[in-house]
Design brief:
The chain has helices at about 20-40, 55, 100-115, and strands at about 1-5, 5-15, 50, 60-70, 80-85, 85-95, 125-130, 140-145. It is an alpha+beta fold. The protein is globular, with a radius of gyration of 16 Å.
Length: about 170
Amino acid sequence: MRSVAAVPTAAITATVEAQDVGTWFQGALGELFATVAGQGLRETGPAGGVYADELFTLHRGSATVFVPCNGPVRPLGRVEPLHVPAAELAVIEHCGPPSEVDRAYGALAAYVSRHALAVDGPLREYYLVGGRQTPDSTLWRTEVCWPVFRAGGPDQRPLSDSDAACTTPRC
């Protein structure tokens, strides 16, 4: 479980088809990194994404990719400034290529459902290690985050190995 603060970012948002998310994501992320650097801004955290439920349930929906940065972003091309809101999140780390992230989503969904924690809101991802750091996708690390109601108490323990149905080895 984690509370995340609101953060100013450079972002690209679009309605995308589920089968096109990977290609769209790579292009958007490259454009964001180039724009942040080109505007003389400094990245202040890992890139992330915010994804509407419809993208998973209807295979088409809103997707936003963002890069937190230290100053005002001037709109350019598809890049816009965006204040990503604070949130309470259940978090699991996925180690490996994006093609296998569905296991982490499944384990996290089961945990959130089992503990009756889910609230309406988009899912998030944070890209801790990716293609910019290493071409070896088996070393990539993504935090998958589910919005939750966090009341505290004994039922809200961290997601453990026994909760995960995933066979991805720990990083």
